[in-house]
Amino acid sequence: MVTFIEILDGPNEGSRFKVEDGITLGRSKADIIIKDPKVSGTHAQISIDGKGQFVLMDLDSSNGIHISGRRVKKVALLPGVIFEVGRTQFKVISVEEEIAIDFSRLVTWRNILKDKLSEVTPPDPSEQSLVLQRFSPALKLTFTQGIQTDEEIILGYGPRKAGSESLDIELHDEDAPKEAFELHPGPGMVELKIKAPGRVTLNNKSVDAEMLKDGDLISFGNTLIKVTYL
After folding, report:
1. What pLDDT tens digit does each residue of the chain (230 aa) get?
2. Of the residues 18, 147, 148, 205, which has the fewest C-beta atoms closer than 10 A?
């Protein structure tokens, strides 16, 4: 039998990961990345105890590991066990070795979008109201603070939309607006249009729209995004 852990809720619901000695779980610096603001950078690690059983050990994280609402230092990864890391719930699953080969699965908004797009009939170009234009030069967004720290997104065309429920630029901060901001091509620059005034700021100032400059900082919640032209 081969052991897996499956995410039961959150942005990556349905993702499955094979349990192996030494694998870490965390928000940013880990083998298994959990998009959850209550998860530490490196939150927990899988190891083998003296009985040869896989266990998940808490690495002195801020919010710990919980089973049935009770905080614990470690969890025995036995089939059927349900535990929480931060606010994210996992279940332990065991499968036969022949099934295990194709059992791992990572579910992201990009995977979902790709699957959905394959089911959609392409629209008639003559009916399209949205015209994509190149960003010249290209734009790089670097997350320097928050749950997505160290993530980089390079954009070559627009307009683009960002928000907590966006299938384009997905924002994972728990305080991110559903529609946070848009990026539109301009003459030699990119225009930022803020869709949630007061909740999203540019260089710590509340604006409705402004042409972005190299080094500008977009912020919301605990997230800070640096703008760079390439």
Report:
1. 899 999 998 778 889 999 999 999 998 888 998 888 889 999 999 999 999 999 999 999 999 999 999 999 999 999 999 999 999 999 999 988 877 877 877 765 555 555 555 555 555 555 445 578 889 889 999 999 988 888 888 898 899 999 998 888 989 888 999 999 999 998 889 999 999 999 999 999 999 999 999 999 999 999 999 999 98
2. 205
- At 135, list the tokens: 């960003």
Residue 50: how many other CB atoms lie within 10 Å: 5
- Predicted TM-score (pTM) of the model is 0.54
CA distance 194 to 64: 36
Q: How far is CA 155 from the centre of its chain?
A: 18
Place of tokens 């349905």: 14
What is the separation of C-alpha 58 from the centre of its chain, rounded to a whole number of angstroms?
A: 22
Tell me whether residue 133 is exposed, middle or buried, using C-beta atoms within 10 angstroms of its C-beta: 0 to 12, 13 to 18, 19 or more: exposed
Give the Cα separation of 19 and 4 in Å (integer).
5
